[in-house]
């Protein structure tokens, strides 16, 4: 204890001695250094605190972290190539990475293809849900139709046999020395009912004015393929067409020798038929009766044909031998002469049924389907399966949904719209339409090269465009859809179900004008289709934006507006612009046009058209210089309409977005994408436009 105290006393005295030994000057210097050290440390602390305060108070950039924003960010980042300078190659910058992983040999590398598959999958989900007691009757019928398709046969021999049974025919093809009792008239009836236009004749009936109109039928393939024997491309297409016939006959068990023989007969008759259809397309029309036709053209059993037709669609009560007929007299005379001069009548029978089967067999045979898709540009009919889908040869449900008949598809549209509740989407897209319309008016008003009259005409034309967004009236009208399905009772037999619907469609087309008119009235006939389109009428233009295209990357209700303006808004402006992509000069000129002019017709002034065509030609030359690789360049004349629409749409939709920003202010960024709102508009536009190249 004493030692410890002594030690502390010693140390204390030693410290005092050290301080006491210092001179006064040294003491002042030591105190000064100490004060300087304290001041220095205090300054450092204040500086660090100031920097920390600045970091915290610096406003952070808002980032959208919703599920949709994260999805959009991931999708865009996976497409972009951030190593590329956008000022040097914006295309590669916006979507260069995506193209590295695309199969360039695919028929479809577009987002349209992806969205179509997505919409079909949504349809599958709804069709495979259980029935509910409060479902409309037609909903159960649609699901029954789908179920029957999932169990459809795949062997062509079995398929053809089933079709013949349902059509009350005994054989196809008719061959030499067979004992078939089926007639040309029976086959012609099937061709008229089960295909949109008959092969030999087309027919139209109005019950209010009991008169049948008989007009030209249509050969299965474009006439040039049959009639042009000099150009290599048509010779090749004709060969592919005959190969299709031989393929089917081979599947039905015919030898190559017999198949070639009957195919040759069919091609010869169809070629002759194509010739008279071309020669008498605008023939003289006259009135007649069935009785008079029998004496004028005995080569066709007209009474049998008409009785069969009316009986076939369950309207025998409308038939009478004195039924008035309006016909293309020159064509009917030439047709009757051709039939009379045809030695092997089986060629006519076989071709009539080929005209039917070519439409339906692709639903059962993948090879046949693919060959028709390859030839779709020269076929005289259109089917949904012309749009190829990935995996369709393995996934039967895809073809079952894609191949649905029109009435059944309408029922499915109802089911899907009810499940999607798209009202808010439709409302917002309509707002985009309004903004685009407004921006286009401003662009026209400010164009210095346009005279006042032409500006006024252009603005009136814009205001005359009616928009159809999402879907029409029919897919949400339960009573009307129930009427479509009236007297249709689906079974487990898919082929029987197909023909039931086709009979109903044909019957309504002929005998129920109200249903036909309503179906034509709905401008959006297939709301789940992934498309947008514009058409010009005599008085007004019409714009359609389907529900199918109202999905990313084009649109989503919860997406930042810069993506929607770069997507769906650009698409809307593109379609609007098609109304101005091809204008013509007219000597006449209307003054003081307003929206209220009932008989509004556009008359473009001569001076305006001269400058318009000069600018249009400049755009053609510009695109014609774009290289496609090797020695190939873009055909500017061929692409001018879309080039014009794209250029104008980009200007108009960006202008609309700039106005939106002024009105509502800046938007949050997407995660990982540190770009301005304006830059994101163009990046979003890039995600859309690369899919269309």
TrEMBL record:
The keyword Iron does not apply. Its cofactor is Zn(2+). Keywords: Hydrolase, Membrane, Metal-binding, Metalloprotease, Protease, Transmembrane, Transmembrane helix, Zinc. GO terms for biological process: protein processing. The keyword Zinc applies. The chain crosses the membrane at residues 28-48. One of its GO terms (cellular component) is plasma membrane. One of its GO terms (molecular function) is metal ion binding. Belongs to the venom metalloproteinase (M12B) family. Belongs to the peptidase M13 family. This is Endothelin-converting protein 9. It comes from Tityus serrulatus.
